[in-house]
Write a structure and sequence with these properties.
The complex is a heterodimer of chains A (324) and B (657).
Chain A lengths: L1 H7 L1 H8 L9 E2 L6 E4 L1 H20 L2 H25 L3 E4 L5 E2 L3 E9 L6 E8 L5 E6 L4 E9 L4 E4 L3 E5 L6 E7 L4 E5 L29 E6 L11 H7 L3 E5 L6 E5 L9 H18 L2 E6 L2 E6 L2 H12 L7
Parallel strand pairs in A: 4-12, 15-16
Antiparallel strand pairs in A: 1-3, 2-11, 3-5, 5-8, 6-7, 6-10, 9-12, 10-11, 13-14, 16-17
Helix pairs in contact in A: 1-2, 3-4, 6-7
Chain B lengths: L16 H19 L4 H19 L7 H19 L5 H17 L4 H19 L5 H22 L5 H25 L24 E2 L3 H5 L5 E7 L10 E7 L1 E2 L4 E2 L15 E10 L6 E2 L1 E2 L10 E2 L5 E2 L8 E10 L9 H6 L9 H13 L3 H14 L3 E2 L10 H9 L1 E2 L1 H14 L4 E8 L2 E3 L4 E5 L3 E9 L3 E5 L1 H5 L2 H5 L1 H4 L15 H22 L3 H10 L7 H28 L3 H15 L10 H11 L4 H16 L5 H13 L4
Parallel strand pairs in B: 12-13
Antiparallel strand pairs in B: 1-5, 2-6, 2-16, 3-8, 3-14, 4-5, 6-11, 7-10, 9-10, 14-17, 15-16, 17-18
Helix pairs in contact in B: 1-2, 1-4, 1-5, 1-6, 2-4, 3-4, 4-5, 5-6, 6-7, 7-19, 10-11, 10-13, 11-13, 12-13, 20-22, 20-23, 21-22, 22-23
Classes of the chains: A alpha+beta (324), B alpha+beta (657).
Amino acid sequence: MIAGLLERNPRFANWLYGFTPPERGTVVLVHRRVYIVPTRLGWLFAATLVILLIGSINYALSLGFALTFLLAGMGLAGMVHTARNLARIAVSVGRAEPVFAGESAQFRLYLDGGPGFDRPAILARHLGAGSQLVVDVPAGGLAEVVLAVPAVRRGWLPLGRVMLETRFPLGLFRAWSYIEPDARCLVYPKPERSTLPPPSAEAAAGALRTQTTGNDDFAGLRGYQPSDSPRHVAWKAVARSDVMLTKQFTGEAAAELWLDWQLLPAHMSPEQRLSRLAGWVLAAERAGAHYGLRLPALEIAPRRGDSHSAACLQALALYQQPAP
Amino acid sequence: MTQAAHPLAPEVRLVGTRDLAWLIGALLIVIAPHTLRAPWWLTLLTLCLFGWRFYYTLNRAPLPSRWLVMGIAAVAILGIWIEYRTIFGRQPGIILLMLFAGLKLLETRSHRDAAVAAFLGYFLIMTNFLYTQSMLTAIVMCAALYTITATLIGFSAPQRPPRANLRTAALLLAHAAPAALALFFLFPRVQGPLWGLPQDAYGGMTGLSETMSPGNLSQLAQSDAIAFRAEFEGDAPPQPQRYWRGPVMWDFDGRTWSIGPTMLADFTPLEGGRGRYRYGVVLEAHNHNWLFALETMATLPQGMRYTADGQLLARFPVRARMRYDLASVVVPAGIDTDEEAAALRRALRIPPGFNLRSVALAVKMRAASSSDGEVMTRAIAFLREGRYIYTLEPPLLGADSVDEFLFDTKSGFCEHFSSAFVFMMRAAGIPARVVTGYQGGELNPVDQIITVRQSDAHAWTEVFLKGRGWIRVDPTAVAVPGRVESGLARAVQAGEPLPLMLRPHLEWLRDMRFQWDALAHKWNVWVLGYNPERQRDLMLLIGIRDADWRSLTATLFTILGLMTLILIAWSLRQLVRPDPVQKAWRTFCGKLAARGVERAPHEGPRDYSARAARALPGARRSILRIAALYIGLRYGSHPSTPAVALLRRLVRELRLT
């Protein structure tokens, strides 16, 4: 019932949770945002205390009173310690690598507990996706949390609400807090496997060369350059020699392709077209072709390489998407 | 969307080897004192259960089935029943709990089970206090509490090193201490018990009893256990005057003396007299009504009763250590010289047909004397000249116990002397009675408190002389003068088994014990003896009159609330406290800025310090040194505490002229 109420009244929820999503920059869990309730174990502990107290009264055991009260004090201190374990953690977000629709976006959160003390056993759970991870935040260090969120549709995928929870030290109390950092992940359209279109007729004649069959023919190794695609790094050789080397292929100087929205059959829906185009971008990049992308309101000149394919895929992902 | 199992929920987290090792270790500390009291087979069984569970963990084997566990439980319960003929008393109940700790471990899979076992451990700590609440027990149980707490913390953070968990446990207990103190002193105390206690609840208390027969006082006198402690305002009376009056024995059946029916009487406070002492007594529980007061009692403690034969009684059997305050006069100004005829008749009764030789002796003395007083003097002289031996191990006596002691064995303990003397008096027609209690006690030079032990148990007599009333005669003191002058140790013959603490060659041990006793007394009064009355006194001290549970609870909650606030403030302060390195650097920048060298926002520490060193050549070396330290601390991999201290000191001492 309360969940429904909060759903219907987001402003009330914002007031209750103490923040308005999404939160830009580093999110600090101030005390106001940390909630705490006893766990079931906490209630059991309380019941144990009551029995101990009755026993102490009945047998007039002074040390029994001392034990009971020390445990009660410990429960009280444990409550403060549990809240402290979460309080003032600074959460910053890392980069989330773009994914294709249907995959899981991997969001990275960094928990910084400050220099004072370590904060063991902190659970981060994505409320929507249910992915979760327990980390120990060292004193003066960072802990990385990777939360997988399924990417269903292309476009920007916001992280959504994340709960941080802890029961440390005694497990008698559960402290938690909600955060909604301003993190988003680019989701490309789900690529459709299909054969590449023929090199376009309008391509400059000089640039048009027959597609070499051996486009993956291994030609040799050369020194690694930062712009090289990780796919072409000769990892086996690297493992042997500790020197970064890149594989060179013949036929890389291949044909120039235009991946054109207009060339697709008229009966295809926009999403289907985007999927087909995404599949082509991947295939063209794999083939080592120079390719360009043409969308109704956008054109990307033919090039090749990882940054180029990323730009093309981003254009597809954000096609007719509202600006975030 | 499906919710994955909650990874912090204790139900789903399995116990690891380390958790289990800690738990077993903690439980072992708790049950260690119980192993002295439990039957050996049960201790062995519990240890086997612990070991068995640990073996399972090491081999990653599935735990035994529930039926097997229940079978073991049933067999063990049967065993306890055979041992004690019940499973509901205090002792069997505690033994049973100890067994359950082992059984619980055997079915412990998750952290939840383990936490329940840890709570059981807390409970077992309490059961130890049913037997003893000494400081040693308290220390051992503190260790157990600490270990269990560290174990619990380990369950919450399985990846954390145990040393860090121990540190957290210490921090938690330290934070718990103020609240625990407030609760201890302010929680409204109720006088227990709330319901009937098992029959064996007060077993094993030592002390005087309603009867006295040859041998039972000498048995008691071999015990070092403390009977009570007395704290005098001013000086304490000398040893020979310290007769602590206890039960008075009237009825004799030829072998055993007993107290007979109790006659209550109104108490009239005594005025005047010589040697008046005011003192408080902290009496150990002995499960009887009687209290001990120095002869002769001058004031009646509040709420206590008084008997016609001068005993001080509590309304209920003393089952917990208690304190009472009163005054006594060693030499009273005027004694009541009257006595009821019925009482006098009772004080003359002797069983006919026994101890004929003694009767004959008494009749002879009577015939040779002109007054009761002279008979008494003759009897005393008879004992003094009879070369009697005072011994802790008197020979066993038959039916004519008085005859055998007086004429044959001639060795005995105080009960023999007093019994024989009263018998002779009665045989000679003089009313007499036996008084039991304690004589002497040891003055602790550290805190001036007299500790009276069971080894000070004594029996003396009172003789009624017309016109003089009841007069104390201590036949033991007459026959063996050393007993009362210098205590039991000097009076018995060398080579007899004295209580350890009374052995003369262990002087250093005694000195140490004096210190320990002084501490133990404070412990008894302030920790163990803290009861509703003490609570009222304490509240009066801080200005709360007639403290009832409402005002106590209000005070308590105020204090607890304040403490929680202080704790929260502490946790906040620790969180917002800036990094000392950063703080020192800011101070440094401020000092330079005051000399006109302000740091530009884009400037890193290296550039800034170089510029500052050029601008202020007088302090060049200090500036560069501080900057180098700061860079090392801020960006280096291993900041060290001495380096931080050095940086702070250098910044503080930086003088820019």
